[in-house]
Amino acid sequence: MLVELLKKYDLITAIDGKTALEAANSEDIDLILLDIMMPDMDGFEVCNILKSNKKTSNIPIIFLTALDKQEDLQQGFKLGAVDYITKPFNPKELLSRVNTHLTLRAYEKNLALRIEIELEKNRLKQEMIYQKSKQAALGELLMHIAHQWKQPLASLSALNISQKIKIEQDLETTKDENLARIEKSQNLINFMSNTVETFRNFYLPSHSSETFSLTDSVKKVLDISDATLKYNKINILISSDETGQTYGNENEFTQIVFSIINNARDIFKKREIKNPEIKIDIQNNVLTISDNGGGIDNEIIDNIFLPYESSTNSSGIGLYIAKEIAEKNNGYISASNDEKGAVFRVEFLK
Fold it and tell me: What is the C-alpha separation between 262 and 268, in angstroms, rounded?
């Protein structure tokens, strides 16, 4: 009777629970009409097995049974059924309920597909952001090395020119002078080699968390950025009242500081700010960095931490990554303006 009534659908029939379970595991089922009184295994047991199986747990089940007691109905819904129809049933009512649940199932599968598509899009987006952040970090690394190498390269060039002049003019040099020149050259080469090693270690990813000093970490960033800051004539004012330690990933925290300082540097350059200045204030678990660059444009200040949002000509990745790192380390970052410029506040929960 049911086969004839539901003939417009693609039907699979099962005369017992075992056959039903085999069909549900091997076929793409959208709805199950399940009796309760069956040989060997009753409908409640079949329903329980279906709902405990990841592959079949989301298939909607309608109990279709002669059992009409309230406790049977409650048991059916408790096990996860979406509907309960008692025999003898009204054919039009049954068709209506079947159609309703198939429609809901179609919506559910469509939603699941859309979610899967959006998750894939988000994965690709995150991968692109990650790649861009790696490129940005590499560019930052090369820039810092270039600035750190500028002076020793000039010194090496001066030593070579001096030696060349002496050779061309047949000027005599003593053994001690030559050894001193070689030693000085070697010291310069060692400094340049150590610079590369220092930056390489600094940018290596680290996933461990531990207690660290915000003040010491900021000073590390300033030491590494010293050449860049001096080259751009940026004055740094730092004050610290830190008495405790902060828990998190120190290496990742330094990237937040780098991002904020680099953002200020780009603003100074873009707006041609005279006497550029960055103030850094450190309290327990709170870092505040402000500048005199004129502030963040009102039209983007609410979205400054979104990817690709930037008030300069940069990629906009830096502050987005800073926000991600802060939240990953149980912290929070915010941006605002004061009378002189932008103010970034980074706070870590205790």
Answer: 10
